[in-house]
Structure formats: structure tokens, C-alpha cells
């Protein structure tokens, strides 16, 4: 069995530990704080999901950014960083420069992130050997969701249907491991994932998993944006997977293209587990190693010379903010 397959299977237990940890953890945003959440790759998509869920449930204004694109001119009460390795250059350098309180969720506390974050939340029990992230990302998001469910809303204005609740997430994860994959999914060659609200980040992560692990053609969008161009490439080779109930008429429109339509059956993050399993199955069928995708490493670590060169992108010197 590959490392990633073992790590996918470990998610119910990891989520259970994360929910328990949320009862005592310190440093996460309080109701009403203006918060930014940062990460890179998979961690960015978890940041996007959490940010949308926190703000839409009335806990406070929340933005998500790639660590390399942080807007230093904006003022935040707190910045939350998600970093499995604790070594990703963009995240470490950003937290080193920020004047506001910071908290990092990481899988390895014996790394530079522990020196630059004001508070470190140790998720080492969910760390991974595979390059491809699965259980760390979903465990971090589960902890953040559980923390939201514990704290009161800062506002009486919350969007309908998005207030954090207390679903049996470990049970949902276990169900996702047992549920059969959609019939015919492994025979498709184009994969599109659609979400709405906080599940847009989940859709982006689903597409990344399929791309990384199996080198397949995969994309993701907010569901209502799908009609605005992307549907033009959908055909009988396609799979279109919804993480939220589809907008009226969209599923039927997709079916008319010949695509396989998959509707959500479980909690959105549990649905992501099913996509993780599909990604591994696709990789295995192609003879690929899903633990070590081509051109990827566990962490992106850049030299200071590279950062000074400007090749990493122009950014405002935090001292000018």
C-alpha cells in the first residue's frame, strides 16, 4: 500500500483528535476579529474554505491569500497560517514580517515556523510521508471548523445554512472510505469540481489532488461560474463532481453533454476523501507513484538569494506598510 493510501485511511482518527484539540487550543481567532488566512497549494485551499465559512457564519471578516500575495497595506487583527511542513519559504518569510499576532497550524513544530509564529498548533499526529497532502489538510480544516462551532457569532447576520454545526465528521470520514466510487469515474479523462461558498476551496483542492497524484486534466470553479465558459469543454469523457447541491438546472445541463455527474452525498470534506481515493486509483491505473508526483517536493524552500532577486514576484516591503 502507498503512503498516501494509508494516510487517506487514517482520516477518521485524525479528525477525532482534531475535534478534541479544538476544545483547548489557544491562539485562534476570536469572534469579531479581522483575520487573514494564508497558505500555499493545498493549504491555501483549506484557508479559502475556512475564511469563507468563518465570515459567512458571522464570526468576523476573513480573507484568504497565497502567502506570496499577502497585501501588506491591509490591517488585520490576526493572521492564521496553514503549513504542513513548517518550512515553506513564503509562509515563514511572511510571518517573520507581520506586526500582528500570528498562529500557525503545522505538522512539524521542529521547523522554522515555530520561531516566527506567535502561537503554534501542533498537528504532528496528522503529518504525512507522501508528497501529496491528504490527512493533514483535512485535519487542519476539521480543527478550524470545530473551533468555529464552539465560539459565538460576532454578528446576528449569518448566511442561511452556513452556521457551523457539529456533524459527526469522523463518522462521515469513515463513510467516505467505505462508499463506492462513482461508477465509471475511473474511465473518465477530464475532471471538473464545483462548489459554492466555502466549498469552492474544497473543489479547488479536489482538482489539485487529481492533477498531482494522477497527472490528469482537472479544473475547478464556483458552480454558478461553470456555465460562463468552462462547460464548453465538457463531453462524454468528462466527470463533473458537485460539492454543494447544484444550482437549479445545472446538473441536467451537464448530463446533456454526456458527462458523468456526481452529486454530493456526504459532508463536503468527507466528499473530498472520495476524490482522494479516486486520484490514487487513477494514478495506479496509469502506473504512476501517487506518493511522489513528478516535479513536486514535500515543501518549497527558496534561497534568500532567490527572494532578493525579485524572481519570486514584486511585493511591498512590509516596512513600508
TrEMBL record:
Gene Ontology biological process terms from the UniProt entry: carbohydrate derivative metabolic process
PROSITE patterns: SIS (PS51464)
Signal peptide interval: none
Superkingdom field: Bacteria
UniProt KW keywords: Repeat
UniProt domain SIS: residue ranges: 25-160
InterPro entries: GlmS/AgaS_SIS, GlmS/FrlB_SIS, SIS_dom, SIS_dom_sf
Record-linked CDD domains: SIS_GlmS_GlmD_1, SIS_GlmS_GlmD_2
Molecular function GO terms recorded: carbohydrate derivative binding
PANTHER family (UniProt xref): GLUCOSAMINE--FRUCTOSE-6-PHOSPHATE AMINOTRANSFERASE, ISOMERIZING (PTHR10937)
Name of this protein: SIS domain-containing protein
UniProt source species: Thermopolyspora flexuosa
Upper classification of the organism: Bacteria, Bacillati, Actinomycetota, Actinomycetes, Streptosporangiales
Amino acid at each position: 500500500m502507498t503512503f498516501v493510501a494509508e494516510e487517506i485511511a487514517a482520516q477518521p482518527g485524525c479528525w477525532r483528535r482534531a475535534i478534541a484539540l479544538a476544545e483547548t487550543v489557544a491562539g485562534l481567532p476570536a469572534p469579531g476579529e479581522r483575520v487573514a488566512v494564508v497558505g500555499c497549494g493545498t493549504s491555501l485551499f483549506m484557508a479559502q474554505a475556512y475564511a469563507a465559512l468563518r465570515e459567512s457564519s458571522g464570526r468576523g471578516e476573513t480573507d484568504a491569500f497565497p502567502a506570496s500575495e499577502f497585501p501588506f497595506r491591509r490591517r488585520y487583527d490576526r493572521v492564521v497560517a496553514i503549513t504542513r511542513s513548517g518550512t515553506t519559504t513564503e509562509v515563514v518569510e511572511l510571518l517573520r514580517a507581520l506586526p500582528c499576532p500570528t498562529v500557525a497550524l503545522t505538522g512539524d513544530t521542529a521547523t522554522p515556523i515555530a520561531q516566527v509564529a506567535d502561537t503554534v498548533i501542533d498537528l504532528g499526529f496528522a503529518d504525512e510521508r507522501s508528497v501529496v497532502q491528504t490527512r493533514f489538510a483535512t485535519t487542519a480544516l476539521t480543527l478550524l471548523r470545530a473551533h468555529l462551532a464552539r465560539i459565538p457569532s460576532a454578528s446576528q447576520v449569518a448566511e442561511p445554512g452556513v452556521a457551523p454545526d457539529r456533524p459527526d465528521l469522523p463518522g462521515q470520514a469513515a463513510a467516505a472510505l467505505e462508499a463506492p466510487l462513482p461508477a465509471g469515474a475511473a474511465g473518465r479523462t477530464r475532471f471538473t469540481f464545483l462548489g459554492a461558498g466555502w466549498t469552492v476551496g474544497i473543489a479547488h483542492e479536489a482538482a489539485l489532488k487529481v492533477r498531482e497524484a494522477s497527472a490528469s486534466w482537472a479544473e475547478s470553479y464556483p458552480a454558478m461560474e461553470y456555465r460562463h465558459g468552462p462547460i464548453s469543454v465538457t463531453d462524454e469523457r468528462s466527470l463533473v463532481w458537485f460539492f454543494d447541491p447544484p444550482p437549479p438546472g445545472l446538473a441536467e445541463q451537464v448530463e446533456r453533454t454526456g458527462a458523468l455527474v456526481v452529486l454530493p452525498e456526504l459532508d463536503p470534506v468527507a466528499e473530498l476523501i472520495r476524490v482522494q481515493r479516486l486520484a490514487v486509483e487513477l494514478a495506479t491505473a496509469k502506473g504512476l507513484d501517487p506518493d511522489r508526483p513528478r516535479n513536486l517536493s514535500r515543501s518549497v524552500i527558496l534561497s534568500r538569494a532567490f527572494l532578493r532577486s525579485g524572481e519570486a514576484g514584486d511585493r511591498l516591503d512590509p516596512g513600508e506598510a
